[in-house]
Amino acid sequence: MKKQKLVMVGNGMAGCRTLEELLKLAPDLYEITVFGAEPHPNYNRIMLSPVLAGETKFADIVLNDLAWYRDHGIALHAGKQVVKIDRKAQKVVAADGTEASYDRLLLATGSSPFILPVPGKDLPGVIAYRDIADTEAMIEAAKHHSHAVVIGAGLLGLEAANGLKIQGMDVTVVHLADWIMERQLDKTAADLLQKSLENKGLKFLLGKQTAELVAGESGRVAAIRFRDGSGIPADLVVMAVGIRPNTALAESAGIHCERGIVVDDTLQTYDPKIYAVGECVAHRGVAYGLVAPLFEQARVCANHLARMGIGRYTGSVTSTKLKVTGIDVFSAGDFMGGEGCEDIVLADPSAGVYKKLVIKNDTLAGAVLYGDTGDGAWYFQLLKDRQNIADIRDHLMFGGHHVGGVGDVGHSGHNKAAAMPDTAEVCGCNGVCKGDIVKAIKTHGLFTLDDVRKHTKASSSCGSCTGLVEQILASTVGGAYQPADTQDKPVCGCTDHAHGVVRAAIRDKKLLSIPAVMRELGWKTADGCATCRPALNYYLISTWPHEAEDDPQSRFINERAHANIQRDGTFSVVPRMWGGLTTPAELRVIADVAEKYEVPTVKMTGGARIDLLGIRKGDLPRVWEDLGRAGLVSGHAYGKSIRTVKTCVGAEHCRFGTQRSMDMGVKLEKMLFGMWAPHKVKLAVSGCPRNCAEAGIKDVGVIGVDSGYELYIAGNGGIKTEVAMFMCKVKNDSEVLEYSGAFLQLYREEGWYLERTCHYVARVGLDYVKAQVVDNAARRAELYERLLYALQGYEDPWAAAVKQPGEYVALEVA
Amino acid sequence: MNDWKKVCPLDEIPRLGSRQVNSASGTIAVFRTAEDEVFALRDKCPHKGGALSQGLVAGKVVTCPMHSWKIQFENGEAVAPDKGCAKVYPAKVEGGLVWIAL
Ligand code: FES
Questions:
Q1: S-S: A164 plus which of A169, A277, A513, A674, CB 3.0-4.6 Å?
Q2: Is the pTM of the predicted complex or chain greater than 0.90?
Q3: Domains of chain A, start order
């Protein structure tokens, strides 16, 4: 098939990101031509301030070098400005006469700085702050001149002022409003910020309206005069009063524009052949000037250009972070509050800390943080997810690490990423230090957690440092940081669908195999990958037990081999001991097996079972056969499944016991045998509130009391300890089985793959779970029945493997 | 010259799966794709030596069970940004049998 022609006008971050996403989805669909007015390849505009401050160099902020364009067969016309779009002939014309015809046109013309229409605005020495040329002009001016005036105390203006100060100039910031950064900060935070900038040597003139820029003898600007008649000397004036979307080209072609080029949720303009992304766009009446929303637009636009037709851009909540070294300011959402809003404020002026949270309808509507911004990323996530915060409101002010079960703020005591030294280890699993992460972010131009994971491996194993990595990302790229979309994040790179959508499709369309799901939902890869296949396999078997195919090749090795792979390639075997009870006969067999197969290590597991470590794969079937003769079956210590029910001695022997906990534990474990789940599931039963079985940190914890049992759910003793939450009280053993079974079935049906119960309950809310399991008897009965049906007739996987040992045995060639 | 050795009937390797093969040149992982092509790699991940034969196969790539590096069948190279290479052995299906060359 002949390639279609795609022309892009504008060679900035939004446009190039769109091309990158497009090339990932459909590398061969288009022949691509790019026009850029600047004579450079695409660079990282948000890093201009560090360049001005002398913290980094231009070469380090180039995102796509010329080789990138070449490698992808993109024709780049750098330094050529497109002056005309001929929509009838479907072509664009550049100022020098270069023409390019298109099947699809992508406008990414960006924005221009707004220049105050005052006399003297065109004098030499008056510049805007927008691109690398401006930055270089400022560095140059600082060498020869001393008085700089920055008009506009927004994000950009303050960063410019700070940079000029570092370059050695005397800097005054002039601002029309009564406080600085009034679009991002309330007055209290702004005053604190102004103070610390003043301490760095900046001067401020607030409430001043510029009337005129006055030339000196040389013809260069020499002074600035205000409406009130006063004035100050100025031999460099930087205008940073705002930006205007560049719509002139689109308008001249008759494309509908309002504040910017008007696009719909697919980033299409009124001309269906023409798309637009970035700062030149007005989407639902909003034009964005920060990087993060532009990247979201890029992703959606690329998808439609690739003719996948999935995904809508519905607008962004944005956050701001000032990139001035040593000063931490963060703001997001509706931070001013007002009608129907409540504020929670913490102010400690002498420590230089101020925090304000704006609450509306039990959700976080906005936040301003000054001095201590460590929790910015966490607040932003809450805001973006519109998570109900009623339950955590009391602790909200103290940040994510004070609130169980919600955000992962990382290792406690380590939650101030910005303050960490570069040598501090962030990811304990993969040995990645903060400095490695910062360096990768800067040199590769990374903006998302996924990118950082790919390049550094940080947070890609156990995930406990995710919060910390997000904070480092947020503090390195500032306002360009966009937290992952936890609600509708695609399962993996093979699809644009989120877990919830996939689950619903499997249920509603009764899909019974992985290929069927992939066909139905338009998977982008033929066989999926190691992320989506195990998830799909679980969704299929949990939704359609006894009907859907269970595909062993889509399970991780541990579940495929029914044993845990160890780092040397051997396996560990844990026989099941119901409720933790065993017999001399069982122990004898285990001892015999350990000797016969020369098991190097025998150990008690954390769940109080016996672990035989270091068994060769080829020996597994024979080991199981020997164990099986004594009635021992698979302990599933390897699976995303029921693991163990831990018990204390209970009323059977213990003088404090109120309930027969061993008995209860055995019943639970027998009921749940063979239960697959989104993640591992652990239970415990304690016979009295002394709770020797540690039921408070289990997925389901049962605690005996005199009048029955208390049921706790969603605890976790792993990566991050989560205390289980009280669900309800029940009267007897059969109610324990029914209520905990119903809860686990709810989790099995609604949980996302690899989501522990604590994360599932944090997502849907404890109240929701109670409404389904406790308050609604009919629903509970249904859930319980479905669980029992799913588990019916489950065959011990070890016994099954003994019958067909083929795959375990290595082949031999001479 | 490479010496073709018979491994097993194709059926003994599951689709999108693999088998471990012991040979004079060490342990080799033989993979079978969805299209019934076969490939062979040294059964040692270039990262920290994980057994590639125990990984998950998709397309012409296996994901190592240890730390999820993705190793490509055709050239043995890890998928970027990871860097490393596992030795590739020629492999083919002929007459319903799998062969590898050592
Ligand atoms: S050993 Fe293979 S990924 Fe680490």
A1: A169
A2: no
A3: 4-111+245-305 (3.50.50.60), 126-241 (3.50.50.60), 499-555 (no CATH), 559-629 (3.90.480.10), 642-791 (3.30.413.10)
